[in-house]
């Protein structure tokens, strides 16, 4: 998972620091060295690391520590700011994902296997999520690899976008010209151009990209990079940036990259700013890259902003109010439980979500997360096997002799084992009790608005 190793090391250091009563010179040097080692182990470029460390050191000595802030808190803040600096500045994702006043053209470039074609489909999906009425044309300009054209066509269909397909062996420049003509005629708002990739950078490829960029007059040229190649991604980016005007980078496969060297080195070495990150193979697995939030997440300060945004995206205000009201009334049915589960799944994997909660992210290991995700799936199947009445009235299962018959029917209907069934009913009871407590607490403290 994204930056896991690096984050664990850094959080360990910072947590040791924050336990100190006195943050003496020796402690400071030791902490600084630990931060340095964590960055080096993450495969960040050494020069970048040394610059960051010396900046923290200088600022710690010269900066005025505001009242009410401890020295150790100041240290954490300076490390955070240093990380934000090297992860790149703000605003890249927002600029890239802005509305199209007139047709906006994007070129996607990158080495073969970096995830370019998948990223285009993900990007189209993300654009449609933000601008549901947008008309998007995908253009397959990788004319040397028939499989690439077919792949884009298939992915295009999955995200409901038309794909302009080149014939195998056609001249990429000619294909692009035709596609652009067509896109103007048909009034497409966005044109996303997939270009040829190579296993390594070669002059031929670079020349072709240069020509395509000129013809496309692209508003954005996005470089797709495989995060798992670590620092090497930054060197690749530097080479691409010498030929095309890379306006933003997409770092893919961050879900499989526990170190983070690519993200930590990219901006300083190549000047390319990360705009988006690939977080799974799934077509939903593309997220804007916000350096300050990522830095907070790495340091274990949590990423409440992302969490809230995601929640706002997925649950309407009415639903949230209704849920809160029910909590206060201490009603909690299987239907509510199912709604909560669907809400949790719609917010992405539980693992990702938990990681954003301050103080929780670093305490949960992946084994526990996958156990929980499995539990959620089982619970969904079980609830779906219940009748309407049962979903509304959990007491039916905890009441009398008929309860056992009901449970047996559900077990058979859902195809789950007795152990899973028992575990489910136990978990539901605990969730119900927790909700009641939470509701009572909220009522007492006036934290939940009622729907009057
Ligand atoms: P291209 O040759 O650059 O067009 O690369 P593809 O789009 O064909 O992707 C290569 C492989 O990487 C495919 O198996 C993708 O499913 C996978 N991939 C792309 N992006 C991601 C990502 O963010 N996470 C993971 N885990 N896999 C990805």
From TrEMBL:
<feature type="domain" description="AAA+ ATPase">
    <location>
        <begin position="102"/>
        <end position="305"/>
    </location>
</feature>
<keyword id="KW-0547">Nucleotide-binding</keyword>
<protein>
    <recommendedName>
        <fullName>signal-recognition-particle GTPase</fullName>
        <ecNumber>3.6.5.4</ecNumber>
    </recommendedName>
</protein>
<keyword id="KW-0342">GTP-binding</keyword>
<comment type="similarity">
    <text>Belongs to the GTP-binding SRP family. SRP54 subfamily.</text>
</comment>
<feature type="domain" description="Signal recognition particle SRP54 helical bundle">
    <location>
        <begin position="2"/>
        <end position="87"/>
    </location>
</feature>
<keyword id="KW-0733">Signal recognition particle</keyword>
<dbReference type="GO" id="GO:0005525">
    <property type="term" value="F:GTP binding"/>
</dbReference>
<keyword id="KW-0378">Hydrolase</keyword>
<feature type="domain" description="SRP54-type proteins GTP-binding">
    <location>
        <begin position="103"/>
        <end position="300"/>
    </location>
</feature>
<keyword id="KW-0963">Cytoplasm</keyword>
<keyword id="KW-0694">RNA-binding</keyword>
<dbReference type="GO" id="GO:0008312">
    <property type="term" value="F:7S RNA binding"/>
</dbReference>
<dbReference type="GO" id="GO:0005786">
    <property type="term" value="C:signal recognition particle, endoplasmic reticulum targeting"/>
</dbReference>
<dbReference type="GO" id="GO:0003924">
    <property type="term" value="F:GTPase activity"/>
</dbReference>
<keyword id="KW-0687">Ribonucleoprotein</keyword>
<dbReference type="GO" id="GO:0006614">
    <property type="term" value="P:SRP-dependent cotranslational protein targeting to membrane"/>
</dbReference>
